[in-house]
Specification:
There is one protein chain. This protein has 2 domains: 163 residues, P-loop containing nucleotide triphosphate hydrolases (Rossmann fold), CATH 3.40.50.300; 61 residues, Alpha-Beta Plaits (2-Layer Sandwich). A hairpin with a 2-residue loop joins strand 10 and strand 11. The protein has 11 helices and 15 strands. Strands 7-8-9-4-10-11 form a 6-stranded mixed β-sheet, sandwiched between helices. Strands 1, 2, 3, 5 and 6 form a 5-stranded antiparallel β-sheet that branches. With 319 residues, it is of the alpha/beta class.
Length: 319
């Protein structure tokens, strides 16, 4: 990973609440490295520190300690040493965000809400048509936002975040409230942003399968600590393909496989074998059958992203 092309970089970013012995570190010495032009999936169970981290990246929460650099410019530091106001505003002008639930005026239409955002950001209103097209809301723009479904409110929030063509987009649970078709559309939209609009996107989620289908890089946070950060391709390499074998006598089968120098381990009702050739698989099955061992099931197995996540966090989490 090229440190010179990092859009977000943090150094021991920490946020704690409380005083002295009663303080609790919600984010604990997190070192993020988000490459330019990627979709970075920020994963973790509920309460892991994802939203707190993203709020610090936007200046909504001051860090207790550590440093934040965004788009190559120091943004904030702990212990009361924030970036200068000029630098901070410059960074925020190049950043779009949708954190937690979208904000809107319910008595105004979707388009009128976006007009207000344009005024606040000093952005030409001609961009409204473009962002409405991106989030596919052209036909709903004149409805009052208070009458929108939760999914439509998410789209409105995303449209507001896209105004001004930001270089960096931070999205917190962007598929929340969408139906399956809406999730698919949002996923495709987010995937298109880096190439089509030259944005870097950071997406937080506890829906690991969603990140698996969207992101290039991933950071996994658990109990405030960043426990993994690298490409998703590298994350999947944590799991090599295996064969799962189930017989009517796993104990005898285990002994026979070990005699044939196959490193085999029991797992619940299965025996786990390393990936081997088709020829060797056929030979071993034939050998087991000759010994009177019945073959109930043979299948290829590879850990999903959820399985890898659980092995890294060391516990079951709510997905």
């Amino acid at each position: 990973m090229n440190k010179n092309n990092l859009v977000i970089q943090t150094n021991n970013l920490t946020k704690s609440y409380g005083k002295h012995n009663n303080s609790k570190e919600v984010v604990n010495q997190v070192n993020l490295a988000v490459p330019e032009g990627c979709i970075y999936g920020f994963l973790g169970p509920n309460g892991a520190g994802k939203s707190t981290t993203m709020k610090m990246l936007l200046g909504l929460i001051k860090p207790t300690s550590g440093k934040i650099t965004i788009l190559g410019t120091p943004f904030a530091a702990g212990n009361g040493a924030p970036a200068g106001e000029k630098e901070r505003l410059s960074i925020l002008k190049q950043t779009g965000s949708l954190i937690e639930s979208p904000s809107y005026y319910g008595h105004l239409t979707g388009r009128e809400n976006l007009e207000i955002v344009c005024t606040l950001k000093n952005i030409p209103q001609k961009e409204i048509g473009e962002v409405l097209s991106i989030v596919r809301m052209e036909n709903q723009q004149h409805k009052k936002a208070g009458h929108y479904s939760l999914g439509m409110k998410q789209r409105l929030g995303l449209a507001a975040a896209l105004l001004g063509h930001p270089k960096l987009l931070l999205l917190d649970e962007p598929t929340n409230g969408l139906d399956p078709a809406g999730i698919q559309e949002m996923r495709e939209l987010i995937r298109s942003l880096p190439e089509t609009y030259h944005m870097t996107v950071m997406v937080s989620s506890h829906l690991l399968s969603e990140i698996d289908q969207m992101a290039d890089y991933a950071g996994i946070i658990n109990k405030g600590q960043l426990i993994y950060q690298d490409s998703l391709l590298h994350l999947h390499r944590h799991s090599r393909k295996q064969l799962r074998l189930r017989t009517n006598n796993n104990n005898r089968a285990l002994c026979l496989l070990n005699e044939n120098q196959i490193d085999c381990t029991p797992s619940e009702d299965y025996l786990m074998l390393p990936e081997i050739s088709d020829e060797k698989t056929a030979f071993l099955i034939s050998a087991l059958v000759k010994e009177g061992i019945g073959i109930l099931r043979v299948e290829e197995y590879q850990k999903s992203l959820e399985d890898i996540f659980l092995s890294l966090t060391g516990k079951q989490v709510s997905l």
